[in-house]
TrEMBL record:
Matches recorded under Gene3D superfamilies: Vaccinia Virus protein VP39
Designated name of the protein: FkbM family methyltransferase
Lineage: superkingdom: Bacteria
Organism: Nocardioides bizhenqiangii
Length: 299
């Protein structure tokens, strides 16, 4: 697409969002990357995940490869939203998914989308550690939710990772953890990894320094914590779902400022990484990451 064409396309998309955001409760049915979903009209997912788009497919490919390398596949989906990740994973391979969602607005859509699939279990809770449990007011933007401290709590009650594991014995052996919680991932992912330390699950999460700081956390704090738990190398994709390469946790910390530089290049935009880490003792999972994101690709 030419630069002019890209500008026109972006303008049209933003105009569409402006109109759709005025009707947040309107329900629509959309086919997104192989699965049919009931969505709020304002949801951005169909815009990002159009035909041929790699958006979100890194997680699906990772789940499929893990299911083949070391079945059975059991997944914890933190911040399940409307259930798109869970359904796309189970459309690609067999397994079981534990969806955790705290936003009452998106829980309605989640249940509409996944309740017919007995391989999916929904937990209506806010997965939280430390003072994150006090952040119970939902801030919704274009299909995602982050929770902040406020006077009008509208989140489900919180649950700690250890309590979640005890409450869901069918998922005592996790193979994959996916977390997308708009900034809280740097606190939640290490806590989940510690709660399921004996399972050594693969960790997949969105690393967004901008939202992490809004949530009140230091973006760099996650890397030494994961290293202590035995997670030292990661496969990395950019915000569009395209491979960046493999990095050590030290390299991730060193290169993290690249994400802060992004808005200066494109005003009004920001960038993030999708990262997947396999435990240092999990040779099969490390082999999967090597196939998905070859080490030679790192730049």
């Amino acid at each position: 697409m030419t630069p002019l064409g890209e500008i026109v396309s972006t303008a049209r998309r933003r105009l569409s969002w402006l109109v759709r955001d005025r009707f947040p409760n309107r329900k629509v049915v959309r086919d997104v990357q192989g699965v049919r979903l009931v969505l709020p009209w304002s949801h951005r997912l169909p815009d990002y995940a159009g035909p041929g788009s790699p958006y979100g497919q890194n997680l699906v490919e990772l789940a499929h490869a893990l299911a083949e390398a070391a079945p059975p596949l059991t997944v914890l989906d933190v911040g399940a939203n409307v259930g798109d990740s869970a359904l796309q994973i189970l459309n690609a391979t067999d397994g079981r998914v534990l969806c955790v969602e705290a936003d009452t607005f998106y829980l309605d859509f989640l249940h509409r989308n996944v309740d017919a699939d007995d391989r999916i279990t929904v937990v209506e809770s806010l997965l939280a550690v430390d003072d994150a449990a006090a952040a119970t007011t939902a801030v919704r933007t274009g299909g995602t939710t982050r929770f902040v401290k406020g006077e009008d709590p509208d989140a489900m009650p919180s649950i700690a990772p250890g309590a979640l594991r005890a409450a869901e014995p069918d998922f005592s052996e996790l193979r994959l953890v996916k977390s997308d919680t708009d900034g809280y991932d740097v606190a939640l992912v290490p806590a989940v990894a510690e709660a399921w330390a004996d399972s050594r699950p693969v960790l997949f999460f969105e690393y967004d320094p901008y939202l992490t700081r809004i949530a009140g956390y230091d973006p760099l704090s996650v890397w030494p914590r994961l290293e202590e738990l035995g997670y030292r190398e990661a496969a990395v994709w950019n915000h569009a779902g395209l491979p960046v390469g493999q990095m050590t946790t030290a390299e991730l910390a060193e290169r993290s400022p690249e994400l802060d530089d992004f808005p200066a290049k494109r005003p009004g935009s920001r960038s993030y990484w999708d990262v997947a880490l396999a435990h240092e003792d999990d040779d099969r999972a490390r082999g999967v990451l090597d196939r998905l994101v070859p080490r030679a690709q790192t730049r």
